[in-house]
Amino acid sequence: MSNKALRILIADEQHFQRMRIERLFNRLDYYRVVPVQNLAELLTLVDYGGVSFDLVIINAALAGEALNLVGFLADNPQVHHALVYNGEAATLSPIPVSGRRKIQIIEAALPDLPCIQRAMTIVDPRLPFVGTVNSVS
Predict the structure, then answer these.
(1) pTM of the predicted structure, to 2 decimals
(2) pLDDT bucket at 137, cuts 50 / 70 / 90
(3) Which of 35, 40, 48, 73 could in theory staple to 18 by disulfide, Cβ–Cβ 3.0 to 4.6 A?
């Protein structure tokens, strides 16, 4: 049984990609999803929103050179866990020791359902990992 109170933030410039990721969460019965399209919206919600996020999923390209994304996610108390996708190791700073249990980085252009399921077994320990959910696009 999923924890329906978990707050999830998805950050990607592409509307289609945000919607695709949100639908994957909906398939797993998570509906408290906030999509944002740029870095300014992400920073506003995380720094000034007054509510923490259990999981932030972000396209690494969104931060570009404007922000040390890994450092920001690792040190921000409003972000409990993070999944960075489209993250080439050469373009991101190494995960600090304090953030190793908090941040996951994948090189895939977009997280798929098994990737999100793995992330949620860490974020939502009450959720049993049962393999993959049948794929319906």
Answers:
(1) 0.87
(2) very low
(3) 35
